[in-house]
Amino acid sequence: MDVLVMIVAAIVTVIAVGLFARTVVGFVRQFKVGKSINRTDKPALRTLTLLKEVFLATRLKQKPVGPIVAVSHLIVLIAFGVLFFTLVTAYGQLINPDFALPLIGHWPAFSYLIEIMSWLMVLAILILIAVRVARRPNPQQPRKSRFFGSTMWQAYYVEFTILAIGIFVLALRAAEYARGSVQGEEFIHSNFPLTGWIGENWTGLSLETLATLILLLAFGKILVSMAWFVTVAMTPTMGVAWHRFLAFFNVWFQRNANGKPALGQLEPIRYDGVALDFEKLDDFPDDIALGVTAMTDFSWKALLDFSTCTECGRCQSQCPAWNTEKPLSPKLLTIAMRNHAHAISPWMTATEEERAHLDPALIELAEKPLVGEDGVITDDILWSCTTCGACVNQCPVDIAHIDHIVDIRRSQVLVLSEFPTELNGLFKNVENKGNPWGMNASGRNDWISEVDFDVKVFGMDGEDTIPEDIDYLFWVGCAGAYEDRAKRTTKNVAELMNIAGVSFMVLGEGETCTGDPARRAGNEFLFQMQAAQNIEVLNEIKATKIVVTCPHCLNALKREYPQLGGNYEVVHHTELLNDLVKAGRLTPVNKIDQTVTYHDPCYLGRHNQVYNPPRELISATADSFVEMDRNRDKSFCCGAGGARMWMEEKLGTRINQTRGDEAIATGAKRIAVGCPFCSVMLNDAVNTRQQEPGRALGVEVVDVSTLLLDAAKS
Amino acid sequence: MGEVLVLVDAADGSVKKVTTELLTLAQSLGEPSAVWIGPGYTDAAGATLGEFGAQKVYVADSADYINHPVAPKAEVLSKLVADQSPIAVLIGSSPEGKEVAARLAVRTNSGIITDAIGIAPDLTATQSIFGGATVVQSKVSAGTPIITVRPNSTAPVANAGAATRVDVSVELSAAAKSATITNRAAAVKGGRPELTEAAIVVSGGRGVGAAEGFGVIEDLADSLGAAVGASRAATDAGYYPHAFQVGQTGKTVSPQLYIANGISGAIQHRAGMQTSKLIVAVNKDAEAPMFELADFGVVGDLFTVVPQLTEEIKKRKG
Amino acid sequence: MKIAVCVKQVPDSWAEKKLRDGDSLLDRDSVEAVLNELDEYAIEEALQITEAQGGGEVVIVTMGPERAGEAVRKALSMGADSGIHLVDASLAGSDAAGTSYALAKLLEGRGFDLIMFGSESTDARMSVVPSMVAERLGLPQLTFANKVEVSGGTVTIDRVGDYGIETISAATPAVLGMIERSNEPRYPSFKGIMAAKKKPVETVSAADAGIDAGAVGTSGSWSQVNSFAARPPKAAGVVVQDEGAGGVAIAEFLDAQKVL
Questions:
Q1: CATH of C2-220, one of 3.40.50.150, 3.30.360.10, 3.40.50.620, 1.10.3370.10
Q2: Rounded to the nearest 10 degrees, how much is the dihedral formed by the CA atoms of B79, B85, B90, B94?
Q3: Could you tell me which residue ranges the Electron transfer flavoprotein alpha/beta-subunit N-terminal domain spans (chain B) (predicted)?
Q4: Which residues form the domain of A378?
């Protein structure tokens, strides 16, 4: 029997390792098809980031899933590595029941480690199984589960394999103890702290029986392990298993070497790995591929992202689109891309010549469009994204969902001309009128006539650069110039700067849309035209310090313009005003005797990490401040980002209403915001409720600056 | 006194109001003659034309003239211009009227002025251009002045004319017969006009409060023959279908008259209607930005103001 | 099928427009110039016709100063094949009659099956040029179409007439005019913009086209502007408080404005 067992184990092992190796090669070949992108800068920092994310579980411990799962996961992760030694031991035990690893096999410290890790692993995996069972989709509200759409059998299979391995290791150790005990070995007293008590029950068995028990347990352990390798090898789309290997690479190669989530600026549009400059339009080849039209247009990192997805669904649980019954879930989108990539991998990795000889069914599949009714994802999925960044911020393996979604939008807009018709108006207005609403440029200074102090408009006194004595260029923005509530914010900020003695200047008709909505909608060409125009003006007049009231302008000016040669120090008005209050240049004299809550705009918070200044300002101006359930980096989008402000929201419930209701539920009388678009969206939501009798009575949505102005004026 | 030809605009045998306006204008310029093209001329029609001063009515009543678009009318008028040497030809500024005028101008080597809102006795026409921003006085300097006049430019004044029938017949050119009308479908009776093309749009917003509330908006629209629009707040709240949304993410309209009811006037709405010629606003909130845009505004409850307006319009329209 | 789409470069439709003091012509320099947006419906329809037929040629035709070439490029970026740009100093200030004469001279003999137009230009808003061109070329006139069917040598349209929808057919060659909402003009793809740069645009002078200089331009105009005045800026509206007669007040206002 021993020989038979050994032969079977050897054959199984060879097959498993062979298949596994073949699949690994398949992964590498597929990733190599992806377009080039440089992700190897600062290798030391990247390694440090990897270690932090793995061992401190910096991403994984985030709420709402929280630390219990993070710690359990960390234990399993470490145990998986450590217990590899027990697999080696098991092979030895097939030959000799008393086999122990040389040198360390009977070293007490090693034994303690193995036993502690095994027990912990069993406990941890039971917790993880329990969490998965408890959080599984329930038939009434399946979408509420973050596991909705995850392949549950795969996860259970992986988890039960780990559980089984743990039990095998413990049972083996107990049998080793029993055999050692019968043989009168000394080492058993110092090597089986947590399994000796089990082995004690088997000391009545004969040495032969114990040898057979060890043989069978070791064989069983090997079979379970190899079955796992075979299953995983045969299922390259089994993210929950493959992340065990791929996640390390995905984390190391993430966009930011320092581990900051891939938010703020978008990745530039690339061709052959080089960021495109549309100023050099004439040098572009005629058949230039823009954005992602086919799977092969993705970068290798995007393909790695898709394969790494563990289907944990943390992104899904945070996604404003998913939570309002839209068809988009960042997880399901990633899974769809991954599954399609692997389904057509033989086609992707083939040369043009080889492709012609492939199975016609495969060729047909490869020609399936990424987007459309018969596509890998539907148009509704693609265009539901608000680019709020909640998914990117959550993802434990650093998948950059937004970059991929926008890259697909780029192709839809620039190559295929397939996009929601409402965007036509947006694009035309930005292109022809320099603002999304198609207002006349001459209206940009209208607000100035509504304030009773002087506002300097650049060029009025014939200057051709911003004078030295000007502290800030005040970038008013389109909303700030044209939209009524945002105009009030503009006037507030101007007045507050005036009171505090901050000198500022505006560009007036020299301003034009930063291009943010065009870029989020995939129109990189229009974005670059707008950006080039603005950068030319800003560089020419030597702008250095800029204050904005719109987080989208902030993100464009501060995070995106550097990609095109515009480098400025840009602050949001809440940052500037908070500094002025702290410096005593603005004093809230009359505190507002109302409770205030604050909605974090995605492009101020998650994308630019400005969380505290608005809160400090509110605390300085209002009697009491209350947080919404979802706040700071877990804030829930208002629904306007990603150019959604310019599209109709026809599917599911309304994102702004969901957020508005959450704000109303705090009982606060003032809902403070720091973004003109959040202001419009939440105002709409609150107004809707105010029409219903007894709801949201006397609740007002205001910009933070309004609170400060109310408090600063007595 | 020179003769002034007026092309009669009639539907189902009855003379349109715009024709009585043109005849009234023609009285101030010379001797009005009506030109009836197509079958269906009746004594009653002749009586109406006479009532507003037509001395002669040229009748070209072959069905041939209306079985082909535009060109036959231009050829009939062209023959009359050649035969009668009128001092001017007046045509209503409907889309087809302007096209007839266009072909007539080419055929007779004459200057054309479209969309006049007034004509002085010396045939200087007044036009309002650029959405009403500029008023222009212009004059035709070649051939027979061909002027299309906007409806409602003048109030019809009765001044009896003989309305003597003069039959006219013209051999149509091959070119005029090269396009043939094979079918006519009357505009659906009672149906509201298309939102983007309506001369009048009556819109409701959040202030309408509920889907049922749109009843008063529709009543007002129907009394004016107007299209119904809605703000994004109203369509989002489900008060009215999305297809009727006016604004940034909906339709852009530019009617002669826009009546905004319970619409605050957020920029996203204004983006879709700010080029309307005349804007009337009704809103409870005196601070609503829509009032800044409005030519006439009423601060009040739309559920009392709008039904009253509907009644008043019905009364005035008789 | 060979289709000409006549387009015009106009001042941005929403910009404030004014007449020049000297010659009473539209001051085109002070405002952004764009492709007349109503022409986009004709371009779109032309593209759809050739696409449906699986071939053909769409030629963009314009008359205007040098910079009107931008409007042609814009139209080409939507997918048209080539352009013809009639540019000549003698043409400046042409009225509708002169314009239609020049276009007719330019178009005749080029073998177009369809000569297409938008319903009007957003600056002059006369909507007479398509009819004039049809008259001059002796072609059937199929204008104000909101639906077009081309089969063989026959074109059938649904014309939105003054009193309903008329179905009209004619044999090609014909003049075809499209109205707004007849289709949804495409937003030029980037590929289209790239391709447009390399598409041929033939520049033609008045003499090349055999145009009699006396019949065009300001001097060839058959009508003239005697005077003009900017209407005083829109006075602030009247806002009244409803005290029981708000509806009647509106009706009175509307009556006074002659919109009832």
A1: 3.40.50.620
A2: 20
A3: 4-185
A4: 260-418
